[in-house]
Structure formats: structure tokens, C-alpha cells
Design brief:
It contains seven helices and twelve strands. The chain is an alpha/beta fold. The protein has one domain: NagB/RpiA/CoA transferase-like (Rossmann fold, 3-Layer(aba) Sandwich), CATH 3.40.50.10420. β2 (75-78), α5 and β3 (96-98) form a beta-alpha-beta unit.
């Protein structure tokens, strides 16, 4: 059965759900982590908390280029809408940058550059959804994922981000690189997703 047929069956089975349930009421004052929200600049708060979960926050394409070259990640994918501002600079510096992601060649892509829907300063989380991410597999299968966002897309706290979800059916929160500690309590990163999670603010 094809991928399209599988998703068509899922959509058909879930089409009876016409509206989302309302969010539960809760006291915002007790759900925030006040220590993680110290400071006034959301980018600075996000950067601090993102770094704490081993994410890398960057503010320029030059910084990204240096990282990719130093870590020998020289072949990747870039969202076509980001190519002129980011991908073209990487390509001009000698990297191989494709704007079409081929599922059957997923091993070829060492990095993936996609748009993020936002970020959460409180938890150091990047938000990805199907409405803005050009290719979800390009965000999840390469060793390096670069989530591109603007300062205006940074939410202060988790409830703010939840309230801004909108109608997107698939939302992923990336709080640093993928991790697991299932085996003997040993933390390993990059097991079931990117081993390097970068947030690039433009």
C-alpha cells in the first residue's frame, strides 16, 4: 500500500472529529518555570535554555557555514524559500545544497535547513509543523537540523506556544538534539533524529 493510500485511510477514519477540544483551564502562575524565564530578551532566554539541552543558537549564516565546514557536514537540503538568503551563501562557499528532498536518498543529506514555526524561550524548544516546514523528513533525518526563525516567532512560555498552535495537524517540539536514556540510564544523543539541533534566527 502506498504512503498516500495509508494517509488517506487515516484521514477518512479521523474525519468524524470535527473540532478540537477546548484547552483545559489552569493557573498560569504555577505552570511557568520562573528561573528559566529570568531576563527580558526572549532570544537571550531561549538561547540560554536551548544551550542547556545541547542545542546551538546562531545569528548568522557565516556562523552556520563555519560550523558545517568544521564538522564536515558538506551536503544537505535547504527549503527553497530559504535558498536565496541561506542556501546560496553555503553553495557559494563550496557546500552541496539541494532544494528538493529525495526520500530514497535520505543518507546523502548531512544537514537539513527548514523553517520553524516558532520557538519557546522557557524550555529552549524549536517548533516545527507541516504548515511551514517544507519537508518534515529533511528536518528529522539528517544529522544536523537547522531550524530558521525570526525573533518575533519566539514565545515566552509553553502556554503561549500552545495557544498559538492554530489548525496545524502535526506539530513537533524539538528541545535540543534527539535523546534517549533507555539503556542503563546512559544519555545518548542523535539516536532517532538529528544529533545537532541548530536554531538560526534571521
Amino acid at each position: 500500500m502506498s504512503r498516500a493510500a495509508i494517509f488517506a485511510k487515516i484521514e477518512s477514519a479521523t474525519s468524524i472529529v470535527k473540532a478540537k477540544a477546548a484547552y483545559p483551564e489552569y493557573d498560569l502562575s504555577i505552570v511557568h518555570s520562573q528561573t528559566k524565564l529570568e531576563g527580558a530578551d526572549l532570544w537571550e532566554i531561549f538561547t540560554r535554555n536551548f544551550s542547556a539541552v545541547n542545542g546551538r543558537a546562531m545569528t548568522s549564516v557565516v556562523e552556520l557555514l563555519d560550523f558545517l565546514k568544521q564538522s564536515n557536514q558538506l551536503h544537505g537540503y535547504c527549503d527553497p524559500l530559504l535558498y536565496d538568503g541561506i542556501g546560496a551563501q553555503l553553495a557559494a562557499a563550496g557546500l552541496v545544497v539541494e532544494t528538493e528532498y529525495h526520500r530514497d536518498r535520505y543518507d546523502d543529506y548531512q544537514f537539513g535547513i527548514t523553517r520553524a514555526s516558532g520557538a519557546i524561550a522557557e524550555s529552549g524548544t524549536v517548533i516545527i509543523d507541516d504548515d511551514r516546514t517544507s519537508h518534515r523528513l529533511a528536518a528529522l533525518s539528517p544529522w544536523v537540523h537547522v531550524a530558521v526563525l525570526t525573533r518575533a516567532e519566539i514565545h515566552r512560555a509553553i502556554p503561549d506556544a500552545i495557544a498559538a498552535f492554530g489548525e496545524s495537524p502535526n506539530i513537533i517540539w524539538c528541545t535540543g538534539p534527539s535523546k534517549t536514556a533507555d539503556v542503563e540510564g546512559i544519555l545518548i544523543e542523535g539516536v532517532h533524529g538529528p544529533g545537532e539541533q541548530i536554531a538560526l534566527v534571521i
